[in-house]
Amino acid sequence: MAKKKGVAEDQGTVTAGTGPVRPVPPEEHEMSFSGPATLVNRFFVTTGPAGVRLAFAEQRNPETLPIFRTAIITSYQDAISFWKLLEGMLAPIEQQLQNAQATSQQITAQTKAEKDAN
């Protein structure tokens, strides 16, 4: 399948937590897709004596309250491992988004300048 321009390439599934970040064996990869995936666009992070609680919710528009979807509690060590895993995997995507935003701002400024000149 041809890669779409501007779409991040699949970096594969990796696991982290108890142990180092590592590629996942096929049976663990299959397991990671065995349940439903729920859309979430709101995140709530709480720290406490048991570790880090991450609650996930969906908010359909700014006028509605978020709808709770699920929550997890993890140890501080595993939360830090998760953070580092996400940070490493998402760095190239973040750069793509920043580049796209800069291009959009340049186009907007150029269009405004051309409109003002006419």
Please give a quick description of this structure:
With 118 residues, the protein is of the alpha+beta class. It contains two helices and five strands; from the N terminus they run E-E-H-E-E-E-H.
Structural description of this entry:
The chain is extended and about 60 Å long. The protein is an alpha+beta fold and 118 residues long. The strands form two sheets. A three-stranded antiparallel sheet has the order 3-4-5. The chain has a two-stranded antiparallel sheet with strand order 1-2. The longest helix has 42 residues, at 76-117. The chain has helices at residues 26-32, 76-117, and strands spanning 14-17, 19-23, 42-48, 51-58, 67-74. It starts with 13 loop residues before the first strand and ends with a helix.
Task: Describe the protein's topology.
Elements (H helix, E strand, L loop, with lengths): L13 E4 L1 E5 L2 H7 L9 E7 L2 E8 L8 E8 L1 H42 L1
Antiparallel strand pairs: 1-2, 3-4, 4-5
